[in-house]
Write a structure and sequence with these properties.
With about 120 residues, this protein is mostly beta strands. It contains no helices and eleven strands. The strands form two sheets. Strands 2, 4, 5, 6, 9, 10 and 11 form a seven-stranded mixed sheet that branches. A four-stranded antiparallel sheet has the order 1-3-8-7, with no helix packed on it. The protein is globular.
Length: about 120
């Protein structure tokens, strides 16, 4: 059974850092694009970052414009995990962050194969 479990959320101050992790099980990890989305209260779920599938150690990454230069996504095929390093956090980054897995290139929340349950990230001003 496919399962994605996020961890690492919490409360941080503006300018601080946080590292989220997603542990995947029940799927062939290297065959999936892995990504992160977030959803703030009253807003739709939005794309944050993604990492391509990887047969070995090579993969490419891409990001939403709002987080470029601040967030870094990485995947570890040996551990079946994908992380999101978040630096220079802003109050507008406050949201529930969700891990996602898809056999196709991740573009939006629509059509994503699998979702984690989410982890709360709160950035205080």
């Amino acid at each position: 059974q496919v399962q994605l479990v996020e961890s690492g959320g919490g409360l941080v101050r503006t300018g601080g850092s946080l590292r989220l992790s997603c542990a995947a099980s029940g799927l062939t990890f290297t065959s999936y694009f892995m990504g992160w989305f977030r959803q703030a209260p009253g807003k739709e779920r939005e794309f944050v970052a993604a990492a391509s599938w990887s047969g070995s150690s090579t993969y490419y990454t891409y990001y939403a414009d709002s987080v470029k230069g601040r967030f870094t996504i990485s995947r570890d095929n040996a551990k079946n995990t994908v992380d999101l390093q978040m630096n220079s956090l802003k109050p507008e980054d406050t949201a529930v962050y969700y891990c996602a897995a898809d056999t196709s290139r991740i573009k939006s929340s629509s059509g994503v194969n699998y979702w984690g349950q989410g982890t709360q990230v709160t950035v205080s001003s």
